[in-house]
Amino acid sequence: MSDRIVGRTGELKVIRTALDETKEGRGGCHVIFGRPGIGKSRLLLAAGDHADDLDVAVAAREAFKHDRSAPLVTLAGALRACSPPAADFAWLAGLDDEPAGNYAKIHRLRDSLERFAAVQPLLIVIDDAHWMDELSALAVRELVPALASFPVRWLLASRPGQSDAPGWQALDWLSHRVTPIHLDVLDDDAVRRLCEDRIGARADDTVLALAQGCGGVPLRIEQLIGALLATRQIIIADGVATVVGDGLPSSFVTTVREIAGSLSPDARWLLRATSVLDGPIDIEAAARLMGGRDPGDLFGPIDEAVASGLLVEDHTGLVFRHALVHQALQSTLSIAQSQHLHGRAAVLAREQNRPAAEIAGHLLRSGRTGAGAAIGMLRGTAAGVAATAPATAADLMLQALRAIGKQDPQRPAVIAGTVGLLASAGRLVKANQLGQEALRADLDPATRARVRLGLAEAFQHAGQDIEAAGYADAGLAGPKVPAEVRARLYAIRAHAAVALDDLATADESGAEADRLGRDHEPGAAVAGLTARSLVAHAEGRLSGALTHAEAATALADRVRGQALHRHPRIWLANALTSLGRFEEAERALNQGHRECDALGTAWAQPLWHHYRSALLTARGRLDDAAAEADAGVAQAEQHSTYQLVVPLLGTLIRLAVLRGDLDQGRYLLYRIRELTAAGVTAPPEHVAWAGASLLAAEGDMLGAFRLMHGVYDTVGDRPALLVQEPAVAAVLVRLALTAGDPDRAAVAVAAASRLARTNPDSWAAAGAAEHAAGVLTRDPARLRAAMAAFRHSRRPLAVAAAGEDAAELARDTGDRETARHRYDEALLLAIAAGAHGVHRRLRDGLGGWLGPAGTGRPAEQQPVLPGLSQAERPVALLVAEGMTNIEVARRLNLSPHTVDSHLRKVFMKLEIHSRVELAARVARETRDRRIT
What we know:
Blueprint: H1 9-23, E1 28-33, H2 40-53, E2 57-62, H3 73-80, H4 102-117, E3 122-127, H5 134-146, E4 152-158, H6 166-175, E5 179-182, H7 188-199, E6 202-203, H8 205-212, H9 218-230, E7 234-237, E8 240-243, H10 252-261, H11 265-274, H12 283-289, H13 299-308, E9 311-314, E10 317-320, H14 323-330, H15 335-351, H16 356-364, H17 368-385, H18 390-404, H19 411-424, H20 428-439, H21 445-461, H22 465-477, H23 483-499, H24 503-520, H25 522-538, H26 542-559, H27 569-578, H28 582-599, H29 605-618, H30 622-638, H31 645-659, H32 662-677, H33 684-697, H34 701-707, H35 709-714, H36 720-724, H37 728-738, H38 742-758, H39 763-777, H40 780-793, H41 796-812, H42 816-833, H43 836-844, H44 846-850, H45 872-880, H46 885-892, H47 896-910, H48 915-926
Parallel strand pairs: 1-4, 1-5, 2-3, 3-4, 6-8
Antiparallel strand pairs: 7-8, 9-10
GO molecular function: adenylate cyclase activity; ATP binding; DNA binding
Pfam families: AAA_16, GerE
Organism: Actinoplanes derwentensis
């Protein structure tokens, strides 16, 4: 690495070690934080040099402020500049013509990176990553964990203080999950060595005293020494450098001005005129800004500016050496000069078809006339990108707000649009702050309703349904609310009421959203229908849940547009799963998820994983179900869509209990309590049952019963838990009997019976009713009927649960043969599903009385990688063959996120860190045996 980097020995060692590991097949990410001028860019260059020495490919790019309005430009620019060039990324050159939505582009980019990294280690470097565009920031959140098993190393550098930028938010999220590198100022010894390295001689106290005034910031020290050398205020005698003369630089800006002042007038004007540009400097643009000069006349001034160190040349063109240098040169312009040059720059940007946000930025700084045009342009640009890049749209609207001023009459209307965008971007605090500001103003009724709509959306996005419902109610109570706004408010109120267990209000609000939305806002009608589907599902009216979900899906398919962004197939799949129509549910999930990827809808991503996990659990594929739920939590946290985190964590707790990982269950329950304490709401079946199932598994049946008190009180009217997990009806009976409360046991039986009567076509509901009654009355015939009904429903773990109860009853009556038969069947079903907790309970309970299971099966050879689950093993073997994760997902008919989750667990269980190590492990274990 470069000998000119001083004071960074520890940081260089971390980066060198990371790149050595990447060469060996390991992936990872480091985020470098530090103030401007602290040396982040120098570290990145050094990393690139070391990667070149290791034959690791390098894809590098600096992000610029106006990247934020050009989707995927940051990451695509880095990969298109990959060294050596890679055909895998050639399609990124036509990204603007790519019709696919955001998630489809990210999926294709992931596929390209996996294929490339399968044969060549890769280093991806993004400098000033806080300026990443929104889609690149989203891609980084997705791809860093997704590619962890590949030799892809990410180095992302950022300055602090950009908390609202999507790039910064992505880096902050990553910094809690990867190894951050925080660059501090240089110590005295490093300052001395840097001065001597720059001068080429030993520095005396006069040099060091001046350098100490730079606060240990390398760039400032280097610029100071450069200015002193340029003005010949450093003399060297007998190998020792000394500062002489008067008028020494007193600040960094003065230092830059000193260097610029030592240049020719043409070079100096070149630097000042182009300082109004925010990106790489084009020579033709520079000539125009300088007053229509001939571009050919600028080669000399450019060489002079580069030689001074103020400009540098890279693969993107000419750029200022550092943002601080750029800002210092901007400060040399008068207000009139700056406005004039920004006006010229706006004309140039228009001619070059630059992003509208960049044009508007120049117009805003060109004077009063330009600012007026800029506001309209910013609002128009925000509207154009709102659907795919809400954070970028919000930033554009905030920029317009800053230009409008506090007293401008159009400010409240702009705030109303901005609040909703901030909500979509997950910036709840800013949305609330702006919304409250607007509500204090004298607003017309329609604008006030739109502000409240934006605030309702903001709080619903954050999972705070009480506040969301409050703002929706306030909006609906106002006069002269436009019909389309009323429809959307009713839709929000409906979904919030479901989470708050107010099903009557939810159904009424959903019906109103549907009625109003049909004519005025189809998207709200779709949302109202899906809320009504959830109500019917919670109340145990399964055919009603399906009817509403089918109507929502048909409406969205017919009107398209924003209605499709409501993704009704999520709730269609939920209804189909509850009715046991698993194949249709899977098709709905697959089609809906493809649509979601194409449309780029962030909020819906966790929902697909949530309902796919429910489907897989019903079918007895617990490892895959846990992987889906785990992926859902990761995506919910990535996008700050916390309304889904609690239900997903509840699912993971239940799966942890079934799979016998109680420590994991306890940790997940702690996370639920943290979220609910922060105001995140969720239906009661997701919270109470998660904790109760964990307590019951730990043997605290009374504690589990007390936790479920509220569920007993409502299960008759809201049997949602029994719909999701039919075998829970019998658990409720057992908990009540253990606690000595036969009345509540009878309540559970009555609820299951009512559910079965309401849904005569549901085998699962019939099984739940027979199972609950069989446990209460200790009737073996009813338990046999429960097992038969559950077999028809194709829910293997429900069959196992009824079989376990039947076996225990046979034991108590001395019927050893029946007990053995029921026990063996339940044991095999539990093993096949990956329900290791159920397996252990059976073995330690009934198994101790019956003795070893008499399955009649011949002894099987132990499989390769015996420590892995049945779902993890095929993933590991296919990866060991050289398949990428996406190829494995296609082969096994899984989502890539599920494969990622399985592979993370494989690496953890096998205590390995790379695909190379996995391939070697599999080869070693299968060398002298057949893979089973």
